[in-house]
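Dear H.,

Thanks for agreeing to be a second pair of eyes. The structure we're designing against is below in token form, covering all 434 positions.
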């Protein structure tokens, strides 16, 4: 190099003497050296070469920097020479490389993701589709780009798509999720979980990004599981009905009692706003709450006169016997505990354990109210039925002392405001649907 200015000296940290005493190619990165040399020679020979281009130089400390070269041809001392202007573009190049890496990373993620990613315009036109969409639907991305989002969507799901897309348009930055069915090339329908995000305000996207996850197999597995559980539920209910019938066969004077208690207990639970599953559990516990009476001799169950203390103790043991029978059954709910507690009372005066208040399961507290009301509306060998008015008076008078207040008030509303009546033949009634 013949001459250099102070800026170049500062840029690569060599002295002016060091720069002017060495060939300029020595300061250029080895990977760029041949390209710069070839263009330098061609320019001196008058050939057409770019007047501006970038390459890397290495400073005295070994650091690599990017420079932009702009060159002019001129004559110096009667010989052709090149006047080169070098601008430091290192920071710009680093930013460019960062953006390029991000773009490649995004491309790798979208093209190798098991989920399909599409970008939809404000008008609802597909602008981009990742290759995963072909694995999901059988259609190549180029077949879908330019089409509308409503194409290939199941007719029954068009309203869901339209509603979700409309809400996304109205809420910049919002993310919404919906399950829809899309048509495969072979004509079958695939269920996908679509998650859309409004990025219309993002200059890099300017669209709604939708992530599609194929959940067809999961949905089918869920349906099979639901069918299996329904079958198991029907089998369990059949077994419970059989047990109930056996108990009633031994005690015909209380025939239907367990079913009517189950009916009223479910109505109370529904009035209290309990969950569907909890109500179904109460129904099963109601059908089984007197299963322990199977251990009591028929003569005692049908005795018309007053029971002795020993006979009453045997009667009272039925809740514990019921627990001992049911505890060996692996119910997914504490049915045995509900059965053993249905004669417990809020003030601790009940049996068999003298439990109080919250120590008693909510389901058992509901069963207790239903059991008392139903029992007082039916005749027994040793007494006439007091009737529904006396039954409601009993639970009302002892609300908060013997019986759970919420369960009592719910029961009173059922009879006084909603006209609740026991079904004539609840033996034909399935588990409640709520």
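And this is the sequence the design step returned. I haven't edited it by hand at all.
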């Amino acid at each position: 190099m013949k001459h250099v200015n102070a800026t170049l000296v500062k840029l690569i940290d060599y002295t002016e003497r060091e720069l002017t005493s060495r060939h300029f190619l020595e300061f250029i990165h080895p990977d760029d050296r041949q390209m710069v040399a070839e263009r330098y020679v061609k320019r001196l020979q008058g050939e057409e070469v770019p007047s501006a281009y970038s390459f890397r130089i290495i400073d005295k400390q070994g650091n690599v920097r990017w420079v932009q070269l702009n060159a002019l041809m001129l004559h110096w001392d009667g010989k052709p020479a090149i006047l080169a202007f070098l601008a430091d573009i290192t920071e710009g190049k680093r930013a460019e490389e960062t953006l390029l890496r991000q773009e490649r990373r995004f491309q790798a993620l979208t093209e190798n993701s098991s989920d399909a990613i599409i970008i939809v315009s404000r008008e609802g036109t597909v602008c981009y589709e990742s290759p995963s969409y072909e694995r999901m639907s059988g259609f190549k991305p180029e077949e879908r780009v330019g089409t509308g989002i409503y194409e290939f969507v199941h007719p029954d799901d068009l309203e869901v798509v339209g509603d979700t897309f409309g809400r996304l348009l109205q809420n910049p930055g919002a993310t919404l999720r919906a399950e829809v069915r899309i048509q495969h090339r072979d004509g079958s329908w695939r269920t996908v979980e679509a998650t859309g995000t409004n990025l219309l305000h993002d200059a890099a996207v300017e669209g709604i990004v939708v992530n599609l996850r194929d959940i067809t197999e999961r949905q089918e597995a869920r349906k099979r599981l639901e069918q299996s559980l329904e079958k198991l539920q029907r089998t369990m209910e059949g077994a419970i009905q059989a047990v109930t019938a056996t108990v009633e066969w031994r005690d015909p004077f209380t025939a239907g009692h367990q079913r009517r208690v189950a009916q009223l207990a479910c109505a109370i639970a529904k009035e209290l706003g309990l969950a569907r599953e909890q109500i179904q559990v109460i129904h099963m516990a109601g059908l089984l709450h007197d299963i322990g009476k199977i251990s009591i001799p028929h003569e005692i169950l049908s005795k018309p006169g007053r029971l002795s203390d020993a006979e009453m103790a045997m009667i009272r043991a039925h809740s514990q016997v019921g627990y001992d029978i049911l505890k060996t059954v692996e119910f997914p709910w504490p049915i045995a505990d509900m059965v053993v507690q249905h004669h417990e009372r809020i003030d601790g005066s009940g049996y068999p354990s003298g439990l109080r208040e919250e120590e008693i399961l909510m389901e058992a507290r509901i069963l207790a109210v239903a059991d008392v009301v139903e029992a007082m509306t039916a005749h027994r060998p040793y007494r006439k039925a007091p009737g529904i008015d006396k039954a409601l008076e009993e639970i009302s008078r002892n609300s908060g002392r013997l019986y759970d207040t919420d369960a009592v008030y719910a029961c009173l509303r059922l009879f006084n405001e909603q006209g609740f009546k026991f079904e004539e033949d609840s033996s034909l009634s399935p588990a409640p649907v709520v």
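Two observations from my side: Confidence is low (pLDDT under 50) at residues 426-431. Residues 113-214 form a domain with the Beta-Lactamase fold (CATH 3.30.450.20).

Warmly,
E.
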